Automatic annotation (TrEMBL):
<dbReference type="GO" id="GO:0003677">
    <property type="term" value="F:DNA binding"/>
</dbReference>
<dbReference type="GO" id="GO:0003743">
    <property type="term" value="F:translation initiation factor activity"/>
</dbReference>
<dbReference type="GO" id="GO:0006367">
    <property type="term" value="P:transcription initiation at RNA polymerase II promoter"/>
</dbReference>
<dbReference type="InterPro" id="IPR036388">
    <property type="entry name" value="WH-like_DNA-bd_sf"/>
</dbReference>
<keyword id="KW-0238">DNA-binding</keyword>
<dbReference type="InterPro" id="IPR002853">
    <property type="entry name" value="TFIIE_asu"/>
</dbReference>
<comment type="subunit">
    <text>Monomer. Interaction with RNA polymerase subunits RpoF and RpoE is necessary for Tfe stimulatory transcription activity. Able to interact with Tbp and RNA polymerase in the absence of DNA promoter. Interacts both with the preinitiation and elongation complexes.</text>
</comment>
<feature type="domain" description="HTH TFE/IIEalpha-type">
    <location>
        <begin position="3"/>
        <end position="89"/>
    </location>
</feature>
<dbReference type="InterPro" id="IPR036390">
    <property type="entry name" value="WH_DNA-bd_sf"/>
</dbReference>
<keyword id="KW-0648">Protein biosynthesis</keyword>
<dbReference type="InterPro" id="IPR024550">
    <property type="entry name" value="TFIIEa/SarR/Rpc3_HTH_dom"/>
</dbReference>
<dbReference type="GO" id="GO:0006355">
    <property type="term" value="P:regulation of DNA-templated transcription"/>
</dbReference>
<comment type="similarity">
    <text>Belongs to the TFE family.</text>
</comment>
<dbReference type="Pfam" id="PF02002">
    <property type="entry name" value="TFIIE_alpha"/>
</dbReference>
<protein>
    <recommendedName>
        <fullName>Transcription factor E</fullName>
    </recommendedName>
</protein>
<keyword id="KW-0804">Transcription</keyword>
<dbReference type="InterPro" id="IPR017919">
    <property type="entry name" value="TFIIE/TFIIEa_HTH"/>
</dbReference>
Length: 178
C-alpha cells in the first residue's frame, strides 16, 4: 500500500522528493502502531525534528491525527499520533482521479484540435488553431511561420501514462482491500 507509484507521487506532492523516503518510513511506523514522535525517531533513525515536521505535514493532509497529553510531573506535552487509513485512501483516490482527468482532458484536447508550433524553435510557441490564427500563423516570439504540430508522440505518451496509472491504482486498491 505504500510502495506504489501513485502513492509515491501523492506523497511527493505533500513533502517533496527529498523527504519521500522519510515520509514512507514514518507512515509505515504509524501503521505498525508506533505512535509517538520519539518512538518513530528511534525506530526509523530519522532526525526528531524531521519526524515532527513530516508528522505535521501528514496532519495537514488529514492523513494523521494526534492527541496531546500533559505529563503531570514534568508539565511537558506528549503527542500520540494515529494514522488515518480511510482518509489516506480517500486522498490518494482524489489525487489519482484528478490526475487521470487532467491527462484524459489533455489527450482529448490533442485529439480534437489542430495545434501549430514555430517552425524555427518549437519551444517559442504552441497554440491551437484559434490562437495561432490570432497571430496570423506567425510566431509571436521570432516572427517565423507556424507549422502544424505532430502530436503523435505526446498522444502516445499520455495514453501510456493513463494506462500505467490505471494499472497502478488497481494494484493500490487491491493492497488496500487485503
Amino acid at each position: 500500500m505504500i510502495n506504489n507509484p501513485i502513492v509515491n507521487d501523492f506523497l511527493e506532492q505533500i513533502v517533496g522528493a527529498d523527504d519521500l523516503k522519510n515520509i514512507k518510513a514514518i507512515i509505515q511506523a504509524l501503521i505498525d502502531g508506533i505512535d509517538t514522535d520519539e518512538a518513530i525517531h528511534e525506530k526509523t533513525e530519522i532526525k526528531l525534528n524531521t519526524v515532527r515536521k513530516l508528522l505535521y505535514k501528514l496532519h495537514d493532509a488529514s492523513i494523521a491525527n494526534y492527541k496531546r497529553n500533559k505529563d503531570p510531573e514534568t508539565q511537558w506535552f506528549t503527542y500520540t499520533w494515529r494514522f488515518e487509513k480511510e482518509e489516506y485512501v480517500e486522498e490518494i483516490t482524489k489525487f489519482y482521479e484528478h490526475r487521470l482527468n487532467e491527462r484524459q482532458s489533455a489527450l482529448d484536447n490533442l485529439e480534437n484540435n489542430l495545434y501549430f508550433v514555430c517552425c524555427m524553435e518549437p519551444e517559442h510557441f504552441k497554440g491551437d488553431y484559434t490562437e495561432s490564427s490570432e497571430f496570423e500563423f506567425y510566431c509571436p516570439v521570432c516572427d517565423y511561420e507556424l507549422e502544424p504540430y505532430d502530436a503523435k508522440k505526446e498522444k502516445s505518451l499520455l495514453k501510456r501514462r493513463i494506462t500505467i496509472d490505471k494499472k497502478n491504482f488497481k494494484k493500490f486498491e487491491e493492497a488496500v482491500n487485503e
